[in-house]
Fold each of these.
Amino acid sequence: MIGMAQQEMEYRVELFNKLTHSCFEKCIEKRFKDSELNVGENSCVDRCVHKYWQVTAMVGQLLSASKPM
């Protein structure tokens, strides 16, 4: 039981790290000009995170639907 919980935690950490890396690369300028996100960056990150979770949920549904009972 503990092993399953540990696997789940590792999966979630990996998912978070991939999400962070992907959206950072896509949305944040390479040269930091301000200490906070500008409006465009903030909007891009919001959209990126939303799409990432949507796709993750879709893949999870497809995988669970294809598993034999």
Amino acid sequence: MANSSMPIERLQALDNVEKEIASCIQSAGQALTELSKDKASMKQVESHTSQFLKTLNHVEGELSKHINYLTQVSTGQPHEGSAYGSVKMYKTARHRLEHTRSRLQDLENLKNRALASTVRPSSAQNNP
């Protein structure tokens, strides 16, 4: 599974779940329609109810998978296809590097000023 296609696949899976929810509602509606008839066919009611429950269980399982995935992503735990942790570590390391360079440059400037101030008084003493 390619990393670039993972979000597309997840969206397609959620689209399928949405279609299954519509199917679930349709089964429930058909069962209620059959029950509202004067001479309801219990076989039809049971068939629609069974289809409703089957689809509902599948939808619940799929939504649980997506919720678990989102929980992993939001807590920063590594998961398949995520570069968030690596990017965050890279940015932090880059920031530390820049800070270290800045501090070293400050120390270099302090050293140069200190050397310059010690060289000037001695050269002034040699040339009165």
